[in-house]
Amino acid sequence: MKRLLACVMAVLLVFSMSGCAQDTSKQDAETVVTKYYDQLKKGEFDEATKLCTSDVSDDNEYGIITDSMDQMIEEMSTSFDFNDSQNQKVKDVANQFAKNTVKQYVRSYEIQKDDTSVNDDKDKVTVKVTIKGIDMNSFTNVTNDASITNSIQEKYEPKMESLQANNATDEQINDLMVEIITDLFNTYGSKLDGLKSVERKEKLTLAKKDNTWKIKKISVSEKENATNA
């Protein structure tokens, strides 16, 4: 009887340890996902990507925002003969706009813990998340809105004409250009801030790398559900 009881206890212990291992995998993966979205909520895209594998397949396109800002900064630097101080001001305002835009993409989120699953080999975990924020179409529509650029142009046209009429220096004209660019980004930001949220679902697949869970794939599905989140 004692031997039989010992065998039963050993079997129960194995099952118990197996269950704990799986739960730990889920919890560890969900912790990584929580850190990922917390960074996005703060607009820290670069910090969020550190939680992903180098070959991550990412459908949420947050990188388009930062890439477009980098391209815009480079184009402005070559189009205008800005000095170092002016270049830095343009870079700062563009980067701040990119950061604030990423924050608008993830205004709030919730991990669907009941849907978290571990594969049989326990080397992959799938985590589902519901996010509320703006979508890529909103970003594109705002930054491509000709009425915004036309309004900014009309606002500063008299000041630019006055500078040119008074033989202003290149530095004075470029100072005005920096002011215009700053106003433009701030206007874009205000427009994005005022947009309603869209609820979307994201499914993240995490894989073990160097004994650490990393986000390997992010799939996105969007649905019509606008709220004032």
UniProtKB/TrEMBL annotation:
Highest taxon of source: Bacteria
Signal peptide annotation: 1-21
Keyword set, alphabetical order: Signal
Protein's name according to its UniProt entry: DUF5105 domain-containing protein
The organism of origin for this protein: Absicoccus porci
Lineage: Bacteria, Bacillati, Bacillota, Erysipelotrichia, Erysipelotrichales
